[in-house]
Model the fold of this input.
Amino acid sequence: MNASSQVITPDHPVEDTAMEFETIFDAHYVRVARVIGRIVHDPARAEELAVDVFWKLWRSSTGSGENVGAWLSRAAVRAGLDELRKQARRAKYERFVGWLLEPRTPEALHIATEEQLRVRSILALLTSRDAEMLVLRSDGLTYQELAQALGLNPASIGTLLSRAQDSFRKEYTKRYGI
Amino acid sequence: MESKPQLNEWTDAKLATLTPEWEPNTVRARARLNSRSPMAMRPRRLRFAAALAAALVLVAMLPATRAVGQRIWDRLFLTGVTVVRVDPDALPWSLNIHIGQKSPVRAETARAAAQAAGFTPMFPQEFGQSPQLAVLGPITASVNLNARQLQEALDKAGASNVRARQEWDGVKLGIEVRPIVIAEYPGSTLMQMQPLTLDAPAGFAMSEFVEVAFRILGLGAGEASQMARQFAEHPTWFLGVPQEDAVQMREVRLDSGPAMLLEDFKEDGGKERTTLIWSIKDRTLILSGDMTPDRAVAIANSVR
Done:
């Protein structure tokens, strides 16, 4: 997270803000899209959601005054999980055919493996914080970065992560066995 | 009891399966961002994932009247679609799905699609251009019944006066979807497939099982019995659409007969997409996209 120290400040002139936004986009877009891509298996949809995250950053002052890398991590994982839960709700009635037909665009002609589907289905069941921690941790965030992204006390990350892993394991085992 | 490092390792391995194998396209993303303006947000590109906004889950059941004792298995062709506002997640089983191919295969021509699918696809005449074609499948799925879980689900649904038969324990129901032809047009998609087939052990008490399944899904005794009779007379797919989902459904008339129109709404109340499902003699068709109901009907009526 080389650009994690960049900050958008609300009182910058527009031109400066635009330039800064470009810099942030260049530094973070790929990572944001890949974080979402861990959760949403359609690459085209993941890219759309990543653009939405940057659009939200551009339009609002949501990210102002804080570590923009952390803000983007949080926004990305939440966008992905929101989408995953929407898909999970839809999957109640389209799981037999709907998800099989999902990959339609050339990019989306990639289909999730059974294991990916299982892991994603468990993420959709977990509490938001547990799922966010697991996804961001698997994307390589350090404890410190996790704490920044999720607004948690760095000292509690180890314990919270263990609990999240435990919850994930229990749900997975309950549904699919070992 | 598992140690922390073991748990770490196990979890890491599971989550590592989600590592994307594709590279985000920065140029495209930049273009998308540049195309947006505060005054005119472009509608999101249609997603295939949601194209079947109110689409399909199979709650497949075989009527007892079809059981023929001399055969080891009975095979039933499901030639229509019945939409029911129930939550299929309440059913105490999950489908084990096997796909003959890992992803849809592009077909350059309609002839190639027909060869791959084993039937001749039909296309709407409303569009002035050829679609992008792909073929997916065949797909097989199975359900293993567990009598204890069925009974627990019945009890949970408040149907404790209904019993799940013990001999259903371990019974396997098989489903086969033959190849599906996917035709993609700008803003809409047409999918078509031949009838699904359903296999069950001969002699399986299907009518009773149908009733049990619908009682689990929350239907009253009378409704469940009616659904079982309906299925026995005309076996169809059952599409479960949970009550809480923002989907409006109604039957519409096409030139070829009745169709089910489903309108899917976003959480902010805006229209998300329209889906039209209908069946003709040898296939079921699903049209979905960002279109008005009238437009969907016009497109469906032009399918030849």
